[in-house]
Specification:
- The structure holds two protein chains of two kinds.
- Chain A has no helices and eleven strands.
- In chain A, the strands form two sheets. In chain A, strands 2, 4, 5, 6, 9, 10 and 11 form a seven-stranded mixed sheet that branches. A four-stranded antiparallel sheet of chain A has the order 1-3-8-7, with no helix packed on it.
- Chain B is an all-beta fold.
- Helix content of chain B is 0%, strand content 44%.
- Chain B has no helices and nine strands.
- In chain B, strands 1, 3, 4, 7, 8 and 9 form a six-stranded mixed sheet that branches. Chain B has a three-stranded antiparallel sheet with strand order 2-6-5, with no helix packed on it.
- In chain B, a hairpin with a 2-residue loop joins strand 5 and strand 6.
- Chain B is globular and about 40 Å long.
- Classes of the chains: A mainly beta, B mainly beta.
- At the A-B interface, strand 5 and strand 10 of A face strand 3, strand 7 and strand 8 of B.
Chain lengths: 120, 111
């Protein structure tokens, strides 16, 4: 059974930093691209970032987080990370870790989410 | 920020058929990218419900069906049931943004 478990969500002040983790199990982690998707309170889903497998290693970001967020992965630990710096109030959201389906642009499994609150 | 437009809400009585539209543009759906649909029950994570425009993952009832034409797609729910009350989001890929895009979301209410 595929499981994705996010951790690291917290309350942080504007300008602060936070690192989210997503521990994965039930599939061969290194073979799949992984992504972060966020949802602000009462709002819709927004794709944040995606990282390819070690074979391509490419990373992509939505414009609003480019230069502030960094996605990475540790295949030895089957864990995905999101380092978030220079956090803004508008980054407040539940952040979901998602597994990308190979050969398609969709996400077949999602974690339960981690809440990040940016407030003074 | 969403580049895919959905109606905010749709409703129907139990047993009725409802459809949710997802309107995109020539840089996403119209460019040939597939449309996928997710169901999000209150307080839970999204769950894949339709992928590749028309395909249902294992466990998704066949009451749910997807279609795509031109720059739009639709999700139909036949024989509406109380358990179908949820938010539904379409999703595709956008060439101009070079990223994944979601719809604005539609809340389905069973009357």
């Amino acid at each position: 059974e595929v499981q994705l478990l996010e951790s690291g969500g917290d309350l942080v002040q504007p300008g602060g930093s936070l690192r989210l983790s997503c521990e994965s199990s039930g599939f061969i982690f290194r073979n799949y691209a992984m992504a972060w998707v966020r949802q602000a309170p009462g709002k819709g889903l927004e794709w944040v970032s995606i990282i390819g497998t070690v074979r391509d290693g490419r990373t992509y970001y939505t414009d609003s987080v480019e230069g502030r967020f960094t996605i990475s992965r540790d295949d030895s630990k089957s864990t995905l990370y999101l380092q978030m710096n220079s956090l803004r109030v508008e980054d407040t959201a539940t952040y979901y870790c998602a597994k990308k389906f190979s050969g398609s642009y969709h996400f077949d499994y999602w974690g339960q989410g981690a809440l990040v609150t940016v407030s003074s | 920020q969403s580049v895919l437009t959905q109606p905010p809400s749709v409703s129907g009585a139990p047993g009725q058929r409802v459809t949710i539209s997802c309107t995109g543009s020539s840089s996403n759906i119209g460019a040939g990218h597939d449309v996928h649909w997710y169901q999000q029950l209150p307080g839970t994570a999204p769950k894949l419900f339709i992928y590749g425009n028309i395909n249902r993952p294992s466990g998704v009832p066949d009451r749910f069906s997807g279609s795509k034409s031109g720059t739009s797609a639709s999700l139909a729910i036949s024989g509406l049931q109380a358990e179908d009350e949820a938010d539904y989001y379409c999703q595709s890929y956008d060439n101009s943004l070079r990223g994944y895009v979601f719809g604005t979301g539609t809340k389905v209410t069973v009357l």
